[in-house]
Amino acid sequence: MSSLNREELICLFDIDGTLTVPRQRILPTTEEFLLTKVKPRATIGLVGGSDLSKIAEQMGGEDVITKFDYVFAENGLVAFKNGQLLGKMSIREHVGEEKLQTFINYALGYMSKLILPIKRGNFIEFRDGLINVCPVGRSCSQAERDQFAAYDKEHLIRENFVKDLKRQFPDLGLVFSIGGQISIDVFPIGWDKTYSLNFVGKDGFKEIHFFGDKTAPGGNDHEIYEDSRTIGHTVLSPDDTIAQLKELINL
Fold this sequence. Notes:
This protein is an alpha/beta fold. Helix content is about 35%, strand content about 20%.
């Protein structure tokens, strides 16, 4: 239980599996709880691996950047505070086109050899701060996402893919992180979700709490969860997030 006020306490949230069912829209009851119960007691922010358009889609619209005090898209590489853009990073400029193409060509070749229950389209999604690699293809339906997620849990498709990428590209300065149900996020070292702490760390909070579901090693919440600047909370579902928040702010 925290006795800090709103200016001293910030709660940062992963989105998929933490505030929403993966790739689904936030429930009205969850949104209402965050905005009417938590926000008056604590500063609130989102830290998602997706780009802003996908975060807005899941969180009920583009006004998400004004509903939440902070919105960190692409791990914080596209950052907003009180609706205003704080900064944007470019993986293309940082890594260089030649190296990125070498990686992309290899990843596409690897995925072309995978035999899965289903395959669809959009296997590589290029964002400002990261590359999202998806063996099943991001254009799959929700039912197909769930089918791949179950298959991946048994056959470790993404885990083995990450191991192979680490062997193939040990000197490229990239991190390969499993995120959500179906994909792998690829970004420069240090461009994980801890990047968002570069912004909130300047604002004088006494406690920074982070809530996420992929907090184990290899998950895209792990680095910020274990960072010395944060108090990490592993959650199992949006309902679990709400339960832990009630305990934290004494509701």
